[in-house]
Design goal:
This protein is α+β, with helices and mostly antiparallel strands. It has 15 helices and 25 strands.
């Protein structure tokens, strides 16, 4: 029998009513084993692609003959399935859910709020062998939501991919089935292992949805097997790093978190960890906006274009609210529309400010993360291990350092700290190296006598500390490199600027461990500063400490 490619979604508990009210007039019903489904097709009228319209009308080219009438259609369908009464029993957790199969562009009509966010990823992690992986797609929520796709040309092992648990959230995993189970097709008496129901060597891609090739006669068995794998936590043995953030499904806790967020949004001091990041549907990673507008949808007048902004910033939202005689709050966050456009100024999707917020909220001393409109809680064991490892790099007797008063800006703090300690001030002293406009800052100030480099950053948010960690890595890489090029450039610069630099950093290659790397974190929370840092800041610092210690360097975290 032939196979078809489909994306399978699973709805959240309690969302059947929302789905049913949206899709209530099916084209037909399809019965597949122990599931009954409503089938909805979407066949919009054809439209002329922009490129064809430009070719037909362009004054800069000459066309001989009649230009053809070109139309494109975006066709899609959804099959919404539920267990039938033929089953001896329905698992309680499945009775109040739908499976939704999407074909073509059908997924575009689904609401992310209805769907299990990691259904496909969980199933794929349980099904795929860690030596049969093709792609991992990761996201850094608090580093301007960097998305990274690491794809291998052939099925490869997990260790060959650049997955960093201290920085990345695993969004999508893709791999190949081995087909070694050899389960025969047919109506199952018990749920069968999913891999045995798929063609040997077929691709499995899991994120929000599960993308697979399947035989329709096996659909009932496949859905049963998918649900078993979704409830299976066995993948955590081989993937312990992927679940340190767990979705918050408790509606009472969600309400408390939203109330806490509302208080922060209304306060005079803007939430320090908040960022605005616009994203498309989780079902399609290609919907990346190029520009934005806030509020009502704009319609361009003939001969003109829509005025958009290239970045989605907190100040833009505040300006928009002032124009509407409103102020920041949970209500206005959910009520402010964000229209997102591609590079041709075509609107690709609409969302709201609440769904664009990336923020950390502490509730009862436990960090919670709001990302893509959903709340997550940090796993307790992960938090305990994280704090324990970071404490190892905090000296019990820290060196005497100029105390920060909670007011001074970084540049002024660096100036006063270096003057007080009689250190060499290197803040904003950029060394041109590597060609073009490449330039690097060694550190903020240098203690030549005790061989210590100081790197300073305020701890208001995770993103600046992530940048600081990257600066430390780059400085270490350049200063301790076998290539003397950067040290030569540093020597010339220090001589010209009359800045005292230890000869160990300019005339020869220093050995790892001969200099102390001191990361100075400016925070107003003096009682337990390490624990009070934002979650992703702690993750970045732990990752830095691991890398430096593994390379033989000494590193300390200081809180003046």
């Amino acid at each position: 029998m032939g196979t078809i490619n489909a994306s399978i979604y699973l709805t959240l508990q309690g969302k059947k009513k929302d789905v049913s009210s949206t899709f209530n007039a099916p084209d037909c019903q399809i019965e597949a084993g122990e599931y009954l489904g409503d089938f909805f097709s979407f066949q919009p009228k054809g439209s002329t692609p922009d490129w064809a319209e430009e070719l037909r009308k362009s004054a800069g080219i000459s066309i001989t003959g009649s230009f053809p009438n070109i139309e494109s259609k975006t066709v899609g369908a959804l099959l919404i399935l539920r267990p039938t009464g033929k089953r001896n029993s329905i698992p309680p957790d499945l009775a109040n859910r739908y499976f939704i199969l999407s074909f073509g562009s059908g997924w575009q009509r689904l609401n992310d709020d209805w769907l299990e966010p990691n259904f496909g990823r969980t199933v794929a992690l349980n099904v795929l062998s860690i030596d049969q992986l093709l792609e991992l797609r990761t996201e850094q929520v608090f580093a301007l939501r960097h998305i990274s796709t690491d794809r291998a040309p052939i099925a490869s092992t997990k260790d060959t991919f650049n997955l960093d648990a201290d920085r990345d959230l695993l969004e999508v995993v893709e791999g190949k089935t081995t087909g070694i189970l050899g389960v025969k097709t047919g109506k199952p008496t018990t749920p069968k292992k999913l891999e045995g129901l798929l063609p040997k060597g077929s691709k499995v891609r899991g994120g929000q949805s599960l993308r697979i090739s399947l035989t329709l006669s096996d659909l009932s068995a496949v859905l049963d097997a998918c649900f078993v794998e979704f409830q299976n936590t066995g993948y955590r043995k081989m993937w312990p790093e992927v679940d340190y953030l767990v979705p918050v499904n408790d509606t009472n806790l969600q309400l408390k978190l939203e109330n806490a967020l509302d208080v922060q949004l209304r306060s005079a001091n803007w939430p320090s960890s908040l960022m605005l990041v616009a994203h498309g549907k989780r079902g399609n990673s290609e919907l990346t906006p190029d520009s934005f507008t806030l509020g009502r949808k704009q319609v361009a007048k003939q001969g003109s274009t829509i005025s958009t902004q290239n970045f989605l910033a907190e100040s833009d939202w505040r300006s928009f609210l002032r124009s509407q005689s409103q102020s920041p709050s949970l209500t206005t966050a959910k009520g402010t529309a964000v229209h997102c456009f591609d590079d041709q100024l075509k609107e690709i999707f609409t969302t709201d400010i609440f769904s664009c917020l990336a923020i950390e909220v502490n509730l009862n001393n436990v960090p919670h993360i709001l990302a893509e409109g959903r709340w997550f809680i940090a796993e307790p064991k992960f938090l305990a291990t994280l704090l324990k490892e970071l404490t190892l790099s905090v000296p019990t007797t820290p060196p005497t350092l100029f105390a920060w008063d909670g007011i001074l800006k970084e540049a002024e703090y660096n100036r006063q700290a270096s003057a007080t300690g009689k250190y060499s001030l290197l803040d904003a002293k950029n060394i041109h190296y590597g060609g073009g406009q490449s330039k690097f800052e060694v550190c903020d100030f240098l203690d030549n006598k005790n061989r210590a480099m100081y790197f300073v950053k305020r701890a208001d948010t995770s993103a600046p500390l992530s940048h600081l960690c990257e600066q430390v890595r780059r400085s270490v890489e350049l200063l301790f490199s076998p290539n003397p090029g950067f040290r030569t450039a540093l020597s010339a610069y220090s001589t010209k600027q009359k800045i005292a630099i230890h000869a160990d950093l300019t005339t020869s290659r220093p050995l790892p461990g001969t200099w102390i790397l001191r990361v100075v974190i400016l925070t107003r929370k003096k009682r337990n500063p390490l624990q009070e840092l934002p979650l992703f800041a702690k993750c970045s610092l732990r990752r830095l400490a691991k890398q430096m210690l593994q390379s033989g360097h000494r590193i300390e975290f200081l809180f003046p």
